Amino acid sequence: MIIYKLLGAKRVGVSMKSRHVTGCMIIIGNEILSGRTQDTNLNYLTKSLNEAGVKLVEARVIPDIEEVIVATVNECRGKFDWVFTTGGIGPTHDDITATCIAKAFDKPLVIHPEIAAVIRQRESTEEAMQARMLMARVPEGAQLIDNPTGGPQGFQVDNVFVMAGVPMVMQAMVDTLDKQRLQGGEPIRSRSIGAYLGESQMAKKLAVIQNQHPEVDLGSYPFYRQDGYGANLVMRGVDEKELEVMQEKVRAMILSFGAEPLESE
Amino acid sequence: MIIYKLLGAKRVGVSMKSRHVTGCMIIIGNEILSGRTQDTNLNYLTKSLNEAGVKLVEARVIPDIEEVIVATVNECRGKFDWVFTTGGIGPTHDDITATCIAKAFDKPLVIHPEIAAVIRQRESTEEAMQARMLMARVPEGAQLIDNPTGGPQGFQVDNVFVMAGVPMVMQAMVDTLDKQRLQGGEPIRSRSIGAYLGESQMAKKLAVIQNQHPEVDLGSYPFYRQDGYGANLVMRGVDEKELEVMQEKVRAMILSFGAEPLESE
User: Fold this and answer.
1) What is the tally of structural domains in chain B?
2) Residue of B20, B123, B200 to mutate when probing chain A, most A C-beta within 10 A
3) B34 contacts A56? CB cut-off 8 A
4) pTM attached to this predicted model
C-alpha cells in the first residue's frame, strides 16, 4: 500500500502498511560514526514520537560534511512529514548544522534576538562570546525550540526540527514539543508477550496472525538467557481493540505449544 | 574534494575530506525505529572498521519493508565501497532481508548446502525445521560469513555483507571478516584530549588547528560533570605523525588557557 505525505504539499509515495504521519531522524555527528559515542537520542526521540502519533520510519547517521547534510535534509524533508536533526549546533568549527539548514532551505542566516539574549546572560571573554554568538544564528523565519536546560534554543524551519546532540539538552528540547506544534495521528501503542519457544516453532502461526491483522506490525525478537532461549512477540499499531484481539491470539498460540505467555516482556 | 569508489567498477563521487575506503551500515529492524531496542551494532561495527581502514561514512535505520530495503541497498552499494546490513535474517515472517538482497541484485534465492547442514544439526519438528530452513536461502553465488556462535551463517554478495541483528551473533560474524576479505586502507586512528574549558573559549584556536591539518578530523564534544564542564577534543586520521603533531598543538592550546590537558579522555 502506498501512503502519501499528510502535511506537505507534495505527494510522495512512502510504502507502509498503513497511513501514518511519518518522521525521519537525521543524526549529525562524526562521533557516532567513529564509534566514540553511542547514540541514545534515536531511542529517546522515537518514544516521544509514538505518543505524538508520529511513526519514525527512517533514521540516518551522517558526518559533519556540508554537502552531505544539505542533500540529506533536502531529500528527507520532501519524503517524510517531519524531520528531526540532532547535533552540530554548538560553537566550534565542526558545528555546521545551522549553516546547512539555511542552505537546504535557501534562506539567509540571521542572528535571532531571543537566542542572543540567552547567550548574553552568561558572561564570557570577548573571544568566547563571539564563538557562542554563532549559536544564535538561525535561518530567517525559523521558530525557536525551547531549551529548558538554560542554554541556546534549537529551531524549526518548515517541517524540520533542529536540536542539540548532547542527550540531556536534546531530551529537554524534545519534551517541549507539544501536539499543537508536532501534529501527529493516533498514538502508536505496543503490546509485547514473551515465551520460551523457538522462533521457528512459532513462525508459521505468527505469519497467519500477521496476515489477519495487516494494520498491526507483529515482530518476533529472539532472546538467549541462562535459563533458555525464546522470543518476544511485539505488536504495534494505533487501534487498541485490534491490538487486544491480536494479543489474545498470540497468547493462545503460545499456550497451544504448552508454554507460558510472559506478559509485558 | 571529491573521492571515487576505490573498489567498484563505477566511479561515484563521495564528498569527503580525504580519500578513504568507505563503509555504510544499514540497520534493518522495526524494533530499533520503534524504540523497543537500543542499537549497539553500529558502535561495534565501526570500531572493527576503523582497524580495517574502512571509514564508516553513513548509517541508516530502516523498517522491515521490502521496497525500502531493496531501494536502500541498491542506493548504498553504488555509493559506498562496502555495505553492511544487520537484522532480518531469522526464520519468521518479518525476516525478509535475504529476499530483499536477492531482489536488489536481481538474483534467484537458492538453498545454500552449508547453511542447510548447520541447520540440520539441531533436531526439531518438521514445522520448525521448515521455518529454520528459510535461513538457508541466499542469493545465488553468495559467499558465506562464518557464524562462530554455531547458528546459520551470514552471507556476502558483491560489496554487501549481510549479518544477524542479535548483537552476540552480529559481533561474532564481524570478527570473522579479515583483511583479505574486507579490503581497506590504513587503519583509522584517533587521539583524544579533554579539558575543563568551555568550547567557545577554544573555538577560534581549534578552527586554526583544524585548518592546518585538513586530513585529520578534529571534533569537539562538550561534557557536563559534577565538578565542572569542559570538552573532549578528538582527532581522527590515518597518519600517526600528523596526529601526534596535532595532538601537541591541542595540548599547547589547552595549557595556554591555564588548564590541564586530560590525556586519553
Assistant:
1) 2
2) B200
3) yes
4) 0.92
Nearest CA in chain A to B91: A200
Sign of CA dihedral B105, B111, B112, B116: positive
Contacts with B58 from chain A: Cβ below 8 Å: 33, 60-63, 68
Q: Tell me the CATH number at B142.
A: 3.40.980.10
* Structure confidence at residue B8 (pLDDT): 38
Residue among B38, B50, B218 whose CB faces A35 most closely = B50
Higher per-residue confidence, B264 vs A142: A142
Is position B182 within any domain?
no
Burial (Cβ within 10 Å: 0-12, 13-18, ≥19) of residue B170: buried
pLDDT tens string B197-231: 999 999 999 999 999 999 999 999 999 899 999 99
CATH of the domain at A234: 3.30.70.2860
More confident residue, B108 or A8: B108
Residues of chain A with pLDDT under 70: 1-19, 265
Note whether B58 and B128 are same-domain residues: yes
- Residue A189's Cβ-count burial label (10 Å; 0-12, 13-18, 19+) is middle
Find, in chain B, the residue whose alpha carbon is nearest to that of A127: B201
Average pLDDT over residues B139-152: 97
**CB within 8 Å of B136: residues ≥ 6 apart:** B111, B112, B115, B116, B119, B152
Phi-psi region of A264 (alpha: psi -120 to 50; beta: other; left: phi over 0): left
Residues with Cβ within 8 Å of B8's Cβ and at least 6 positions away in sequence, in order, are B78, B81, B159
Instruction: Give the list of residues 6+ apart from residue B239 with CB closer than 8 angstroms, or none.
Output: B186, B215, B216
How would you classify residue A141: left for phi > 0, otherwise alpha for psi between -120 and 50, otherwise beta?
Answer: left
Higher pLDDT, A9 or B20: B20
Tally C-beta pairs within 8 A across A and B.
199
